[in-house]
Backbone:
């Protein structure tokens, strides 16, 4: 669960180049990142509510075979990503890019 930005006081930001470079391959065409500021509505926290990050792996025939043959976790994940799998970190980056949460929240929850 990540904290959701307060819609009353969030403000647009541009990510530092190093942070952008780390996630540029994940970003949709139209994106905007925000930061939390704090206001009376959110008790000066900058956040209101929570949002779930999720990942659902559909086990295809290919992945099933890889599991049965004892393939490495990395190879299975690569195959899953090739088949459209969105892991929790990527899901979080997409939510941050839509202004739902901050990239810092995503890193705190899903990358650590």
Residues:
């Amino acid at each position: 669960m990540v904290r959701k930005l307060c819609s009353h006081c969030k403000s647009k930001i541009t990510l530092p180049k190093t942070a952008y470079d780390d996630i540029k391959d994940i970003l949709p065409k139209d994106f905007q990142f925000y930061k939390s500021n704090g206001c009376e509505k959110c008790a000066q926290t900058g956040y209101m509510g929570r949002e779930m990050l999720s990942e659902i792996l559909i086990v295809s025939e290919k992945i099933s075979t890889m599991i049965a043959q004892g393939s490495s976790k990395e190879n299975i994940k690569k195959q899953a990503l090739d088949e459209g799998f969105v892991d929790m970190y990527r899901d979080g980056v997409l939510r941050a890019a839509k202004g739902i949460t901050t990239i810092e929240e995503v890193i705190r929850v899903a990358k650590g």
In short: Residues 2-54+88-111 form one domain. Residues 63 and 79 are 7 Å apart (CA to CA).
